[in-house]
Amino acid sequence: MIKNGRKNRLQTIVVREFEPKDKAEVHQIFYEGLMEMVPDTAFRGLKHHPESLLLYTAMTVLCFVITMCWWVIGFLPAIVLCGRYFCSRHVIHGYLEHAMSTDMGDIEGFYMKSPDACLWVAVLEGKVVGVVAAVGQQKSGGAVELQRMSVDRKCRRCGVGFALGQKVLDFAAAHRYSFVVLGTTAYSPAAHQLYQRLGFRCVGVTNGYVTPGARWSLLERIFYRVRHHHYSLDVQHNKITSNGQQ
Ligand SMILES: CC(C)(COP(=O)(O)OP(=O)(O)OC[C@H]1O[C@@H](n2cnc3c(N)ncnc32)[C@H](O)[C@@H]1OP(=O)(O)O)[C@@H](O)C(=O)NCCC(=O)NCCS
User: Fold this and answer.
1) Which domain holds residue 131?
2) Which ligand 1 atom is nearest residue 194's CA?
3) 191-217: average pLDDT
4) Are 189 and 242 in contact (CB under 8 A)?
């Protein structure tokens, strides 16, 4: 149980293990968090990819040279933004389908039956407002992966994400894992700031990451391009308080 010391000092965040009755709320929070990635990737992500900007400029110049119509210069950026939006939506829907056909479609079977995995919910005033999961990675010995972090939009900046992240770190320490790792394609600062506040360090970036569920068609190659940040935290050397200070 963690006392929330930020926005609303009287509320108490409880982080507990998933129960079957939480399924609908967990799916809703996960879905809404994922859908926020659509405009994030399509619009905010654009300025982080100069190679895409260069490609769109070249496409505009080429179209102008072929058609010799000035209106192409004004029209093409609108097409590019629409293309980016719809391709991001398509890939993220594919990712959602992939998640629902694996772990998120069978939370109990995937997370709650193995000692090396778990999914937790954050409860605020009796309502499920956040979700996070952890999975021990058999391949890279000693690491547990933080996954599926999402908080209800109405309850953000209240310490819910931090409390959920802390739960994963406690799980890793209790199970004697050496590292907690995670990956994110988010461009909004919220996820990055949260992980850094929890003590994670960015250990690598993959430009042109292939999102699970993506078909990698020509349109997706042109309009969907993301960076994948890899974060890691050394569990045994991480001393962190509930205020986020190391
Ligand atoms: C990222 C997310 C989980 C954060 O949840 P949250 O409950 O709002 O986070 P907290 O209130 O615990 O914030 C903890 C710290 O994270 C950082 N942070 C959170 N939201 C932030 C924002 N919008 N801008 C900048 N920093 C932010 C701050 O350092 C904050 O500490 P502070 O409030 O003392 O400054 C939430 O924004 C979310 O669900 N986003 C959509 C889904 C997503 O991106 N998931 C991660 C995918 S990998």
Assistant:
1) 2-237
2) 16
3) 92
4) no
> Cα(185)–Cα(230) distance, rounded to whole angstroms?
9
Tell whether ligand 1 has an atom less than 6 A from the beta carbon of residue 29: no
Ligand 1 center to residue 177 CA distance, Å?
A: 25
Ligand 1: residue whose CA is nearest its atom 32: 157
Residue 2 has pLDDT above 50, yes or no: no
Count the domains in the chain.
Answer: 1
Residue 23 domain flag: yes
Whole-model pTM?
0.90
Query: Using a 6 Å cutoff on CB, does residue 13 contact ligand 1?
Result: no
Helices (H), the chain: 23-35, 37-42, 50-67, 71-101, 107, 160-174, 189-198, 218-223
With 90 as the cut, is the pLDDT of residue 137 above it?
no
Q: What is the mean pLDDT of residues 111-136?
A: 96
Average pLDDT over every residue of 72-98: 92
Say how many Å lie between the CA of residue 193 and the centre of ligand 1: 7
Q: Return the residue whose CA atom lies nearest to atom 20 of ligand 1.
A: 190
Q: Which neighbouring-strand residues pair with 111? A: none
39 in any annotated domain:
yes
